[in-house]
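Box 4.2: Ligand-aware structure prediction
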Amino acid sequence: MKFLTEEEKVAIEKEYSAILKSCPRCRTKEDKELIRKAFDLANEAHQGMRRRSGEPYFYHPISVAKIAAQEIGLGATSVVCALLHDVVEDTDYTLEDMQVLFGEKVARIIDGLTKISNVFEQGSTSLQAENFRKMLLTLSDDVRVILIKLADRLHNMRTLYSMPEYKQLKIAAETLYLYAPLAHRLGLYAIKIELEDLSLKFQHPAVFDEIQKKLTASEKERQLYIDRFSEPIITKLDESGVRYSITGRPKSVYSIWNKMQVKSVAFEEIFDLFAIRIIFDPDPSLPEKTQCWSLYSQVTDIYQPKPDRLRDWVSTPKANGYEALHTTVMGPDGKWVEIQIRSKRMDEIAERGYAAHWKYKGEGTDETELDKWIKRIRELLESTDANALEFLDEFKMNLFSSEIFVFTPKGLLKRLPKGSTALDFAYDIHSQIGDRAIGAKVNYKLVSLSHVLASGDQVEILTSDKNEPQKEWLNFVTTAKAKSRIKDKFKNERKELIEKGKADLEAKFAELEIPITSMLFKKLMIGYELYSKEDIYYKIGAKEIDLENVQKVINRKTRNKFIRYWRLQITKTTSRLPLLKRTSEAPAINSNPELKPVNRKVPFIVDEDSEEQNYSIAKCCNPIPGDEVVGYLIDLSNVIIHKKKCPNAQKLMSSFGDKIVTVKWTTKKVLSFLVRIKINGLDNIGVVNNLTTLISKELDVNMRTIYFDAVDGVFEGFIDLYIHDTYDLDALIRDLKKIKGINSVKRVEKIEEELSE
Ligand code: MN
């Protein structure tokens, strides 16, 4: 049964007026006619198509149109484009049809929303990255492309449960990697938070449920505290006759999880799970800024503010348009509480971002900070011919960083990403100034070009006409603009090095009589964590890869057995071992031709030694059974296993989602995996002895290496050991924590350096 039932036809017809109702900006007769036309065309074009969930496909464009209108605040053109956004991609209609029927503007936006689907040449290209770049190219024409894309993504995330798990992982990772930050950058806070929470829910369902449960369980207590905190403020503000509302909002599940990860603390340890928001109805006879400060003054009459926690985004709004006054005050029971003070207008901008700006500024008035940002993206897109993946990294870097404000000698304000150097500033002013820069004066003091700027600095660039960009500059610029300009200067050099590296590699293998095969390149790519042949050639040409080492990497047929057992006898209370030694051993892939290709439709189950089975454990995050993991297919039959939350895995999922496979651990305790734990405590007699005894005897865990160092009565140490799973590890950590004198025991995520024995 593919075609619509009578009930569905009736239900869809009702949606037309529902869309109009959700769009306060679609009021004219022309608007309504145009939407009707798009509605009918899309309805007819998607006839017979159904989504995975079984519902008629047309429900998706309808939902996207409603989100665009209601939650982002877009107008009739956007509603039309949202209704038509999948028509060119999925039906027989072409872009030309769209142009004839709806005009140039609509056709261009739809073009931006249509994915590239032709297959690219093998190599560094990622279809996901290419598509994202394409979308951004259209952004510089019309920001509505991104806004509709975000509406599309939001609806897909809301309905993601009907997708198979490996697709859920791909889509959730992309969302977290690019779309949520983009929503943030465009000031769409509500959408950003929902995208993040939904991503977390699909990536780590158990974690999500647990945090949400704890949030619900602690709600009453939190509300009581909020009431108690707000009461004196309410009394005071009521007396002064201000019209306002005061709310206490818990932080989102994702932001709590993120904080738990970053600070490695438990839910219970995060005390500031909410912020108090005061939103006032401005008195038209006074500037809003004055009213914000007046409220600040009244609040801090009651509660003591934390000296360094005042954020004034009223005098200098954030680049995405956000305006508010934030402060942190000492509340009852010695708790720090964040307070956000905003006018109604500021609040609407905070929630709805770009679209709300239109309402207050009107289209075509002053250039906002957001317009300037879009202009910068356009420059970036035009000035670089970096491959899509490189571009994506740079774009993301510029998207995320928080900002600093610095001043020109004449007192002009410039915004730069945090971490920018004097040279970034020079390139920001003009690329010519960047090229000619030789030094800088920051606050009248002479500094080098690599000097990192701080908010409030006044910067003057010193130039010389004879100066040329230096390659080393790439090591300390952070802005995309500076990077791409300098890279452009060295493009030819890169080409030469690629040629040279290619010749060197070919000569080396001719000498060794090893044929150059694609398997060989795969080994090299994995061994050096590179994604293209070009990169390998380049690194060889630039002598960043030693050819002797190349031979070692490809000669290693199978990885070393990682299950090796030996025990260490520790007799002294504190044994001082040599410092950590760096090794650069890369994982090798199993080239056993008998291995079967991996079937992505079913989870890959890790239940044998990696020599018998075709997987390796990623060194960057070192997962063990019990960890939530995901697999990345390096070829048809080899899987690298990462923790789901590993930043590298996130990146692979968002750029190479088609190579992602779900992974489950066997439930049998047959394998042991290397884990490193970090311990610190007070260096009293016997602590280390108690510790090693517990590890090797009582729990019968196999210890590989141990390293301890004590300074002034406090020790810190690392232990590498082999363990079955997180269950055993958690039990071990619990027992270790019970030893007198031990302060903390934590698992180390990344084992890139081996402890020497
Ligand atoms: Mn869609």
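In the box above, the bound molecule is manganese (II) ion. Confidence is low (pLDDT under 50) at residues 118-124, 557-590.
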